[in-house]
Amino acid sequence: MTRIVKRACGALCSAVLLLALQTLPAEAQIPIAAAIPPQPQPGPLLIPVAGVTASQLFDTFDQSRGGRPHEAIDIAAPHGTPVVAVDDGRVVKLFNSKPGGLTVYQFDSAQRLAYYYAHLDRYAPGLAEKQELKRGDVLGYVGSTGNASPAAPHLHFAIFALGPEKRWWQGTAINPYPFFSGR
Predict the structure, then answer these.
(1) Which of 33, 100, 105, 129 lies at a CB distance of 3.0 to 4.6 Å from 118, suitable for a disulfide?
(2) How far apart are CA 81 and CA 159, in angstroms?
(3) What global pTM score does this model have?
(4) Which residues have CB under 8 Å from 169's CB, separation 6+?
(5) What is the SS3 string spanning the chain?
(6) What pLDDT, in 10s, does the model give residues 30-87?
(7) What angle do CA 26, 30, 35 make, to 5 degrees?
């Protein structure tokens, strides 16, 4: 008998709550999906340096670099090791800068995230802006261009959430480490 009463009370409470929500004036209702933008969740991205495993990675996101936050992960590898796309998407910018050296900016397929690959020795043959990429496509090769030490070749890899303007140079930094380590 008690179970029947609990079920009836639970159903009645749900019906009252639903009715109350439906009778709120439109201006009082907040579309929850619009109020909270979807956040990228840690999940499996391909590690962008061929032959490197998750156990070889270190979380360097919160470290300081010359007085500024690093906001990336450095993946050490021998000079010339292939660098691959972590996800499907499109090359939006090939750029040579003082700090990053030879770089690739890739947007994911949904154009919500930008992936930044820096300190490349060289690009993969034929790599071009607007080129569609598949997860695992070779983008370039590990190097030490830009402000990287020639004695320590590595890939500087960053992820950032794009704003509505979809600017390759601007976004909110996201720690890449959990996407590779599952932590």
Answers:
(1) 100
(2) 21
(3) 0.73
(4) 93, 105
(5) CHHHHHHHHHHHHHHHHHHHHHCCCHHHCCCHHHHCCCCCCCCCCCCCECCCCHHHCCCCCCCEECCEECCCEEEECCCCCEEECCCCEEEEEEEEECCCEEEEEEEECCCCEEEEEEEEEEECCCCCCCCEECCCCEEEEEECCCCCCCCCCEEEEEEEECCCCCCCCCCEEECCHHHHHCC
(6) 343 333 344 444 457 999 999 998 888 888 887 767 777 878 899 999 999 999 999 9
(7) 150
